[in-house]
Amino acid sequence: MNITDMILLLAYSISFICALLLIAALFLYFRKRFKARVVSLFMLAAFFFLGAYTVKMAVAFWISFSSSSGTDAVLSSLQTQAWVVAQIGTTAGLIILTVLMYTKRQDLFVVLSQYRKGRSAHADTDSASSSE
User: What 8-state DSSP symbol labels residue 66?
Assistant: First the structure.
């Protein structure tokens, strides 16, 4: 293992840890927002991107720490397929975030339907009743 590999592993480790911490923070955010029944579309897209990026970092660790030789074609194929899926997820997340940013749609919210009897489905009326 040369110095470049060690630097890459350090960078992957820091990225992976930061991504996990952000996912934990966003999970708490989404718990509150789902209870309020209103979720930011931009934050959902960011969460999707971050999840795909975290999978990509996990696959990078898997590839780096495995000893894939030329004889283990199945493992190499699985690693390649996992990397492709993670890259597609990361790219899709970036495309969604870019479209939302350049169309100035960062403030779009998804109002989740209300199934409780007697509750209004409108976001403003729900938030007003919860603040009383």
Answer: S
> For 96-126, how does the pLDDT look when each residue is reduced to its tens digit (9 = 90+)?
888 877 887 667 677 777 655 555 555 444 4
Distance of alpha carbon 80 from its chain centroid, rounded? 21
- Reference 41, options 115, 97, 2; nearest CA is 97
- Condensed to tens digits (0 to 9), the pLDDT of residues 28-69 reads 888 888 888 888 888 888 888 888 888 888 888 777 777 655
Helices (H), the chain: 3-36, 41-65, 73-102, 123-130
Q: How far apart are CA 98 and CA 108, in angstroms?
A: 14
Q: Rounded distance, CA 25 to CA 27, Å?
A: 5
- Residue identified by tokens 């999707």 is 48
State pTM to two decimals: 0.62
